[in-house]
UniProtKB/TrEMBL annotation:
PANTHER family: ABC TRANSPORTER ATP-BINDING PROTEIN, HEMIN IMPORT ATP-BINDING PROTEIN HMUV. GO terms for molecular function: ATP binding; ATP hydrolysis activity. Signal peptide: none annotated. Belongs to the ABC transporter superfamily. Keywords: ATP-binding, Nucleotide-binding, Transport. This is ATP-binding cassette domain-containing protein. InterPro entries: AAA+_ATPase, ABC_transporter-like_ATP-bd, ABC_transporter-like_CS, P-loop_NTPase. Residues 4-242 form the ABC transporter domain.
């Protein structure tokens, strides 16, 4: 059963704020199957964030449809979507003095009534999520005092506490050092939640993603397994850089070495 499907999406950025470098989306098609880890790659400003915003019901496409298990997202409430789709963005929320455990507990909000308190089950979910992201013992720390990498892991823990069907991540490894980049992506892979993530580091995308979509100038130009997609020709055409593509000596997935001119 397919979890998330984007069909013939078209969307135009509005205004001159943070979207003014984003290309218009044109006839974008994408699907994420149950338990699949799908990567979205492309140059800066190619439309990755715009597409993700359509996928989690933030930006309504001008045409096309977004379906979660055959349900059109725009025929359901934001709350319905939040019960099923969790999002980890590049920007961190204003936590206004909240502690780590209070931020993570917010992941239960879509599943609760207005005046419902946290249950023992809610607290256990939050505790498990913090342990999964390597932050057990940080519960009482103030979110604002954390490093960028620690904040990123707290936001992932909040998303896991939602118990989503689909996880959407926008450049999830941006703020992380190499150890936590690997640990975060290994965790996501191990959880087998249907995942769509824009990923800047193509070697990480090759190592962890089941399939990749390549977007450039707002249009999907390639899709397939990392081995099918990450070719010398595509990398030159899309990123404008020559590269050597060979097999990782230990794991066998494609490895990209950018060729720099002396």
């Amino acid at each position: 059963m397919t979890r998330l499907t984007l069909t013939q999406l078209a969307w135009t950025p509005l205004g001159h704020g943070h979207c003014h470098h984003q290309f218009h989306l044109r006839d974008a098609n994408l699907h994420v199957a149950a338990g699949e880890f799908v990567g979205l790659i492309g140059p800066n400003g190619s439309g990755k964030t715009s597409l993700l915003r359509c996928a989690y019901r933030f930006s309504k496409p001008e045409s096309g449809e977004v379906h979660l298990d055959h349900h059109n997202l725009w025929q359901h409430s934001p709350r319905w979507c939040a019960q099923r789709i969790a999002v980890v963005l590049q920007e961190f929320p204003d936590a206004f003095g909240l502690t780590v455990d209070e931020v993570v507990a917010m992941g239960r909000t879509p599943h609760k009534g207005l005046f419902d308190g946290d249950t023992d089950a809610d607290r256990q979910l939050a505790s498990n999520a913090l342990r999964d992201v390597g932050l057990h013992g940080f519960e009482d720390h103030t979110f604002a005092t954390l490093s960028g990498g620690e904040k990123q892991r707290v936001i992932l823990a909040r998303a896991l506490t939602q118990q989503p069907d689909v996880l959407i991540l926008d450049e999830p490894t941006n703020h992380l050092d190499p150890r936590y980049q690997l640990e975060l992506l290994q965790l996501i892979k191990r959880l087998k939640i249907s995942t769509l993530a824009s990923i800047h580091d193509l070697n990480l995308a090759a190592a962890f993603c089941d399939r990749l979509y390549v977007i450039n100038h707002g249009k999907m130009i390639a899709s397939g397994t990392p081995r099918e997609v990450l070719t010398v020709e595509l990398l030159r055409d899309v990123f404008g850089v020559d590269a050597l593509v060979d097999d990782h000596p230990l794991s066998g997935y494609p490895r990209i070495t950018w060729i720099t001119q002396p």
